[in-house]
């Protein structure tokens, strides 16, 4: 047997060094991932309570005093997403209640998780909190159950806000009311299946995440103010831990893929619908259609800003505040 050549030794050394470097890099990535995941888990482990309701356990958070405003979060959310609205509304004299809908965080997924069942769960939560009536803000995939609540409990609905709502709109050729941005289905099959995949996507493919998850043109975020860029980043990062939201996400996809036309003409609550024309989920048409069929409803539309209304946060807050103040004046 001939002795190994220096060339063979060098090649072997390079391979070992490459393997060592890869192992070190993998360890560093794992440490970074575990740190971020622990922070996300700690964030959703505080600030909420579990209400024992007639509809089962429901996680919720609340803040402020005054007339009740229930925030019904969108896909990928939970009580934490809903409470993003709390500061502005609490400062204006309202009591904000934000639940985690079925399949999100600590609210379990029941056998029936339809929009109607979700609406009844909203009523059950109000019962448990001894609240007679509330204004509802239905955001994105939270809109179907907010509308159902207004239809089924008109005396308990002081006002209704549909914000970038996932709701019916007639389309040519019976096309689905909502649109699906390119890459969204792929995310459901990959990143949304695990916390690590979601985390990795947020780290290395943030632009694609903005496009597919926030349904917002990435260039809109790139040209936005630093405050709005931070808000977009917060909304993305809040999806972690996705493993504790996946059941809710899957259910929302099912509910919003078969949106019927609700009896909008029977809604008696004062209604405000807000959307953005370049929302890549296509909620602009549904919001405008709903406002045109709900008696005395008002529609506010923005030309750009995507599904999370980048560049219009202050305007949206002003519209919400003015509407609520006009319809359910706070008690000073």
Automatic annotation (TrEMBL):
Domain AB hydrolase-1 positions: 67-308
Alphabetized UniProt keyword annotations: Hydrolase, Membrane, Transmembrane, Transmembrane helix
Cited Gene3D superfamilies: alpha/beta hydrolase
Entry-linked Pfam families: Abhydrolase_1
InterPro entries registered for this protein in UniProt: AB_hydrolase_1, AB_hydrolase_fold, AB_hydrolase_sf
Entry keyword annotation includes Chaperone: no
Domain of life: Bacteria
Transmembrane domains' residue ranges: 14-33
GO molecular function, one term: hydrolase activity
One CC-aspect GO term: membrane
Protein name: Alpha/beta hydrolase
Organism whose genome encodes this protein: Marilutibacter alkalisoli
